[in-house]
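EB domain-containing protein: structure, please.
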Amino acid sequence: PFVQVESQRDLFQITFTFTNYCKMKATSEIAIILVLTLLCLSCGSSTKVQERILSFYTCKYDIDCVENAFCYWRAPEGGKCRCKENFVLVQNKTSFECLAVATGIDSPCIENIQCEMSLGNLAECNASSNKCQCIDVAHLGRDDKCHRTIALGGICETNDNCLLGDESYGFCYVGKCICNVKYHISSDGKRCIPSSFLQQSCESAESCAVTAFSDCYGGICKCIEGYIEAEDFESCLKAASAVGDNCTQTIQCSEYIKGSFCDNNKCTCKTGYHGYGNECTVDAKLGEACKEDKECILTANLENSVRCTLGVCTCVVGLSSQEPYGCVINSAVLKQYYPSLIMGLILALFLINP
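Here you go.
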């Protein structure tokens, strides 16, 4: 019989077990010999030195010990049975035995300890197949040990914790599972996707997801409709659709509004342009060349008085150009309608004061 000793508490348990075991023996030849040996524990180390000792039998020869054990002689105690190398001490209800330490995953086993010795404490012996496996919340790492499986964003101890959905690995940084440099987390949170930035090649929309408001168009990451690449090509900015819209860069204004720029975080018409509806149009003064009526309408009060006629900004019929007033009623019209205006005024006064 063998036992593993790891602490003083274990020694008390061993004493109790050995005493009861001896009471079960009917022969006078059996004496209660308790061999209490403390393990040498390595301070600050994750590996404990484990001593395997005979519970109460002494030995002279290997044949005196159970299978897979040998007689280890140490003065002055005498010979004691110990498990051979690559075997581990296991206690069942009635006896102790030395079982082979598992060589890896799927190795044959009877007890969990066989698997734990080689695969770590997150390994177990499958009761159905009698083969070593990692427990449900763990997986076999690249170091052939069982590691707890941690999702991206979860708390980790080593890179081997960060197993991803596609069987690749993330990176344990400052105790947190993250994607490696030049990778970003997928939409389902289970994979790390190669990051493709604006104007770089891409395989899918997820590749471009590292930049907000971007998508993969023809194998290249570009901003989606309604957004424009920033001047440094590192982000997508909302494009302005009308004069007066908010902005941080001129490119937001000029993309859809010709002749505009960003001034004090507002889209404004440049010098030589004026606002007309939601856009900026070229200035064309009275008598100057033009292509459209809106070029001549420099201010709102000219809306119904100026037209682009035969490629020149001209006052409408009945109005004439007069500086600095713009288009005013011409003198010929005033003379034509002057008598009627006078009579109208007289009639109005008569009606007001009968």
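Notes: The longest helix spans residues 331-352.
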